[in-house]
């Protein structure tokens, strides 16, 4: 992955309906979204120059904004077309697309009334999140002290920037402790997700995954559940106590950035990268590059 700072690159970014030079895509320091977390975003993968699940991601951006009480001033078709044109202009073959929408700086108070909504889309080359070797070896997770909030305390089904503060705290602490990522429980103490990915356990050849009632029901998660059905692998969505980790033969994560990411350890539990995880990883890799 390139080490170039994200705020100092060449190219263009789509910003409020126009393509602007990358370095000119800026916002004022008194923007409401910066001060009060009034922003939503998406993450999309580009494979062979095509954006995977473009419509679904763009629709979810609108749904997330609605959950935070604002409307995006550009429709799904317009944003989708802008994303595709941006990928073409940037010459991205395999990479990442990041749309983001936030409240501007017309008024700065807890109330959001009177603030204009801005939208930007950027794209860049991006290889595998944890490196190719982790597909064979898996990554290590440590259970975090931070938890996913209850659905009556936060817009848990929105891809809201403010909710990722929890993820940043958990991920930073996990990496400092020598792990690759953190595993979060929910407010009830049940298994929830990693900092940016959904969780699957393989128990007796079947998939077991937490019910997405306190976290985002990921598009990749839904895709992998569909692939499992195609392969005849049973899927059980159910509340999972942390003790279920001891019953698992395999563990993996799913997400746009993570794809299908094997896990070799969670705290003191060890796992192999088994045939179920491998079969789903192969099926997913084939699907995303199918024209």
From TrEMBL:
What are its cofactors? pyridoxal 5'-phosphate
Q: What is its EC number?
A: 2.6.1.42
A Pfam family annotated for this chain is Aminotran_4
Q: Which residues form the signal peptide?
A: none
> Might you name a Gene Ontology BP term for this protein?
isoleucine biosynthetic process
**Entry keyword annotation includes Amino-acid biosynthesis:** yes
Q: Which SUPFAM superfamilies does the record cross-reference, listed alphabetically?
A: D-aminoacid aminotransferase-like PLP-dependent enzymes (SSF56752)
Any one cellular component term from GO for this entry?
Answer: cytosol
**Recorded GO terms, molecular function?**
L-isoleucine-2-oxoglutarate transaminase activity; L-leucine-2-oxoglutarate transaminase activity; L-valine-2-oxoglutarate transaminase activity
Report the top EC class in one word: transferase
Its recorded reaction(s) are: L-leucine + 2-oxoglutarate = 4-methyl-2-oxopentanoate + L-glutamate; L-valine + 2-oxoglutarate = 3-methyl-2-oxobutanoate + L-glutamate; L-isoleucine + 2-oxoglutarate = (S)-3-methyl-2-oxopentanoate + L-glutamate
Statement: the UniProt record of this protein carries the keyword Amino-acid biosynthesis:
yes
Keywords, alphabetical: Amino-acid biosynthesis, Aminotransferase, Branched-chain amino acid biosynthesis, Pyridoxal phosphate, Transferase
Q: In which pathway does it act?
A: Amino-acid biosynthesis; L-valine biosynthesis; L-valine from pyruvate: step 4/4; Amino-acid biosynthesis; L-isoleucine biosynthesis; L-isoleucine from 2-oxobutanoate: step 4/4; Amino-acid biosynthesis; L-leucine biosynthesis; L-leucine from 3-methyl-2-oxobutanoate: step 4/4
Which family would the database say this protein is a member of? Answer: Belongs to the class-IV pyridoxal-phosphate-dependent aminotransferase family.
User: What is known about what this protein does?
Assistant: Acts on leucine, isoleucine and valine.
Q: What is this protein called?
A: Branched-chain-amino-acid aminotransferase
- The record's gene field reads ilvE
